[in-house]
Amino acid sequence: MGCHYNEQRSRGPLYALAGTVLAVISMIAGCECGNRYEYSSGTRTGMINKISRKGLFWKTFEGEMALEGIVSGGSNSGANVWDFSIDGSARNGENEYLLAKKVEDALKTGTKVRIAYREPLLTWPWRGSTRYFIQSIEPMNKEGVKEDTQKDVKKEEPAKKDW
Predict the structure, then answer these.
(1) How far, in Å, are 29, 53, 66, 133 from residue 82 at the CA level?
(2) Count of H-run helices and E-run strands, the chain
(3) Integer distance in angstroms from the first to the last C-alpha of the chain?
(4) How many CA atoms within 13 Å lie on the side-chain side of 104?
(5) Are 152 and 103 in contact (CB under 8 A)?
(6) In b/e form, how buried is each residue of 74-102, taking b as 16+ CB within 10 angstroms?
(7) In terms of pTM, does the model score above 0.85?
(8) Is 51 exposed, middle or buried, given 0-12, 13-18 or 19+ CB atoms closer than 10 A?
């Protein structure tokens, strides 16, 4: 009877270890699924304020854009600033260095731009500091039309979006 007690007692740490391993695997799988699930996507228009490459353990491109319009709150008013990242994992086929160059060019020239972005449900820290990952950047003219396709604009109904 004493041996039976020792066998049960020795299995306790084994069960605890198995439970911990199972919990860690479940968390990693859940985070990976959240990284792949697109929570939102869209476009934003404004002027680039900042682009930098930063990070302590892994470097990512981080930027800041002043959006069109003015935000007022009480007695203060100012620009609506939007922080974004360039995806270090390039999960959607984007070239992070080419995007960073385009953002930097827009910053240097003071060009108004339209940025397309995606927001996953969860993010790994090596992808970027924010949850907004830019996919493309297009220069705009003063009327809000892409500069390179300005001559090709036709008077048609806009395409319906599936969102």
Answers:
(1) 30, 17, 6, 12
(2) 2, 5
(3) 67
(4) 11
(5) no
(6) eeeeeeeebebbbbbeeeeebebeebbeb
(7) no
(8) buried
Taking the CA atoms of the chain, what radius of gyration do you get in angstroms? 24
Residues paired with 66 in a beta bridge: 47, 81
Q: Which two tokens stand for residue 93?
A: 């086929």
- Unique residue bearing structure tokens 């900042």: 50
Query: CA torsion sign, 94 to 99 to 101 to 105?
Result: positive
Residue type, 25: I
pLDDT in tens, 46-70: 999 999 998 888 888 999 999 977 6
Q: Are strands 112-120 and 38-54 parallel, antiparallel or unpaired?
A: antiparallel
Residue 8, pLDDT above cutoff 90: no
Non-local CB neighbours of 84 within 8 Å, separated by 6+ positions? 62, 63, 64, 65, 115, 117, 130, 132, 133, 134
Q: Is the separation of the CB atoms in 60 and 90 below 8 Å? A: no
Specify the DSSP class assigned to residue 140.
Answer: B
